[in-house]
Write a structure and sequence with these properties.
40% of the residues lie in helices and 9% in strands. The chain has 176 residues and is mainly α. β4 and β5 form a beta hairpin. α4 crosses α7.
């Protein structure tokens, strides 16, 4: 069953500041956010890019909840709680909205090094880390949901149940 952002969530999107999106750029029809279809409990945009789903009562889809958990297990040490950024690394909640999905994946898998007169930053490669790679789309959808304002900071209060399909995929990816 597909749910779209509610009026309340849309108001939160429009009120959100610092996301990298101007208020007039945010819309329920934004192709970077809008759910076009669902497949085995995962939601996608029209272009087949993973996205989040928040029900009217605030329940988040399983991948978004899983992404919250995995982000805080692997990424928040550098990028800060909830993808808000730190003095050490940038806010990823913005990257999930501003970067092309495939560029985001490339940076996580292969890392990135920016060295110059005004910048010296290194993002290590996580392409061999199953704790990141098995959940990369989940992390992306969590950051996208938070960056858009559809969910706030902290652990989402309500989540969909983890389906058998997710459990099987997780076991296969983690080598169980």
């Amino acid at each position: 069953m597909k749910f779209h952002l509610t009026l309340l969530a849309t108001a939160a999107l429009l009120a959100q500041t610092g996301t990298g999106l101007a208020a007039d750029d945010v819309s329920m029809d934004d192709p970077n956010i809008a759910v076009d279809y669902e497949e085995d409990g995962r939601y996608f945009t029209e272009d087949g890019v993973p996205t989040f789903n928040v029900a009217e009562d605030g329940t988040v889809d399983w991948p978004t909840f899983s992404g919250f958990r995995r982000y805080h297990a692997e990424c928040h040490v550098c990028h800060g709680p909830d993808g808000e950024g730190s003095t050490y690394a940038p806010a990823l909640k913005n990257s999930a909205l501003d970067m092309d999905y495939y560029d985001f994946v490339d940076v996580v898998v292969n890392g990135r090094k920016k060295v110059g007169a005004s910048e010296n930053s290194v993002m290590p490669a996580f392409g061999t880390n199953p704790n990141v790679m098995c959940y990369l789309d989940d992390i992306y959808t969590y950051l996208k949901a938070h960056g858009s304002g559809a969910i706030g900071r902290g652990r989402p209060a309500q989540k969909e149940a983890k389906s058998d399909v997710f459990a099987e995929n997780e076991d296969a990816c983690m080598g169980s």
